[in-house]
Amino acid sequence: MKQLSHKRGAHQLIDVLLWTCLLVLLVGVIAGIAFQIEAIAFRYPLDYGEAPLINQAAQLTSGNPIYRPDLEQPPYTVANYPPVYVGILALFESAFGPAFWYGRLISALSAIGSSVFIILILFSRSHNLFTSLLPGLLFLNIPYVISWSTLARIDHTTLIFALAGIYFLFRKEVPQKCMYKDFILGSIFLILAIYTRQSYALAAPFACFLYLLQKKWKQGLLLIAVVGGTSLLIFLILNLLTKGGFYFNIVTANINPFGFERMVNNFRNFLESAPIIFILAILGLILSYKRINGWPMLVGFAVGGFLSALTIGKIGSNVNYFLELAAALCLLIGFSLVVLVRSQSRWGSILMLSIAILLLIWQGIHLIQEVQQNSRDALQQRQKSYDALETMETMVRQNANGPILADEYMGMIVLSGQDLYLQPFEITQLVNAGNFDQEVLLEKIRNEAFSLILIQEGSWWQGVAQERWTPEMLETIKNNYRLYAQLENTSVYQPRTRQAAEVKTSCPTGVWTIPSSTYLGYQYQDGFLVLYSAGAEGDLPVIAPADGFVYRPSSFPDGSLSILNEDPFNPEEKVITLFTDMRSFDGRTILISEDFPLGAEGISVSQGDLLGYQSNWAGQPFFMKWLHVNIGVAEYSFEFLSDFDALTANLINPADYFGIVIDPDANQVKQVECQTPD
């Protein structure tokens, strides 16, 4: 009786742990859905790969081919994937026009649907909803899963088709007859997965083949014949209709260089992010062997998902290559729980189950933190840069008189209703493989055939431009185009023959010199005059607008200093001029002249003396904004020389000091305009 009482207590403890785990994972799922909703509502591109898919959807609705057999004529674009997802997008595009929200909505719903199929696959064997829920919810807590579900990309749609195929073929015992309803449905979904993303021809079909081979070997062979034969027939038909274009786009244009180090680094990141998932999945692989009816499916899906994930070593690949493996790991974890729950009559199983749930709780908390702290970074950065992206969109629309080239922000071209002229990364890979002669494109760049060229250059991803453009393309652009603007890590180039904007250094009615370049214009924000320009950090000087004394107290934010000046409008009165944001975008370098060290008090400075340089600092490391410097003017108070908050709370309009017109209600960057003399 005492032993039974102890076991009853242990079972109650396990129930508490299971409920705790469920609640933790539910919190993560809710937070993930909130993330998805934010991304769906965001107007602008979140990823390089979104725009080509929306562009292909627009081409389909217009009746234009997307699988062209060669690239002898523009547009120089590639359709890397089979047509199922693009076909779904085309239905939305025909109703709503070009936009990213519906592609992201499809991805988000597909991710949730994949979670549901994981639960259903587990429930088909366990008949225990509680233990079936945990791995399904865990799937929606994995950072790679949730971050990729916020993008208008094909991968989650592919995965839900693959899991649906597995579910229909796995959920019931295999009947004697060869062709039955679930066999047909499963085969259809596997074919849909393959024709959404071609790499899904491996893991899910292999898993289903092994399962059927164990149960009824003839049906395993029939599955290969039906899925493989139908897929091959569709391929031949599409390739024939496109005159070889289908093969060129989804095969030839997808053969990119492979880097072993890139593959290892990605796997290391996944393992460091979710070590418990891998540990429990290995446990699931061991426990499921011969204990789960249909265990070969689990082995096949895990092995196939792992082999597919190895291709993450290709240049241009991303964490989406881990989605299939992530689903397989969750299924393995789920079936390990099923085995342990069934064996609760033994103390060893009770102990293992308790440890497994505790580890899952810890892993769930860690995953929630990672999603909120890291996975949301890209969306949050672009939300903070909304004004700059809005300016970029306006700029693209205003220059729609000619074709525009872009990389990360190709989506701006798509949103403006234009067709993409070039996919730089894909074409660069074709150039490197000897499958595209770039001279025809270089000649168009030399002839200034493009009204704008947008290149992502200032970014956390060092060398991003060099991966997406050939050296010859970049050199030709720099030689024939001039920098026109810098918007959200992106340099905007215009043809050199266009007239450059006039940069004012002073105005007739001003009593002070304008202290830095205003090439792109100004904004008036929270009392600060923000001067914007274009160039590299550390190149454009910030000078003293008038004689005075420099103060740089340690209590001021890095990259800030003030000057105590005589007030030219109030004799015998003083004003304080504040300069901020003279700090590199990564936060590592202070761009203030060495003449004014930290702690400086009352160092004499003359009009025109160098104070520092403009920067891309945006308030936190690696969050960049246009090259700029912030300038504020405040009436003098002794406490303001050391109290930054008090100083910024008492800023006044500096327009008359510089003789410029300031529009305090301007939401966009405006060109500097001098006041009209009375």
SSE topology sketch:
Elements (H helix, E strand, L loop, with lengths): L1 H40 L8 H12 L22 H13 L4 H26 L2 H11 L3 H6 L6 H16 L10 H14 L8 H13 L1 H25 L3 H6 L9 H14 L1 H14 L6 H15 L13 H20 L4 H29 L1 H8 L1 H13 L5 E3 L3 H6 L8 H9 L6 H8 L5 E5 L7 H5 L2 H10 E7 L2 E6 L25 E5 L2 E6 L7 E3 L4 E5 L8 E6 L7 E7 L19 E6 L4 E4 L13 E9 L8 H5 L2 E2 L2 H4 L1 E2 L11 E2 L4
Parallel strand pairs: 1-2
Antiparallel strand pairs: 2-4, 3-4, 5-6, 6-13, 7-12, 8-9, 8-11, 9-10, 10-13, 13-14, 15-16
Helix pairs in contact: 1-4, 1-5, 1-16, 2-3, 4-5, 4-7, 4-15, 5-15, 7-8, 7-9, 8-10, 9-10, 9-14, 13-15, 13-16, 14-15, 21-23
Count of helical regions: 25
Strand content: 5-15%
Largest sheet: 8 strands, antiparallel
Instruction: State the secondary-structure class.
Output: alpha+beta
Mean pLDDT: 90
Shape: globular
Question: Could you estimate the helical fraction of the residues in percent?
Answer: 40-55%
Low confidence ranges: none
State Rg: 30 Å
> Termini distance?
102 Å
Query: How many strands?
Result: 16
How many domains comprise the coordinates?
3
Would you give an account of this structure?
By secondary structure, the chain is α+β, with helices and mostly antiparallel strands. The chain folds into three domains: 2-46 and 100-373, no CATH class; 384-495, no CATH class; 521-674, Glucose Permease (Domain IIA) (Distorted Sandwich), CATH 2.70.70.10. It starts with a helix and ends with a strand.
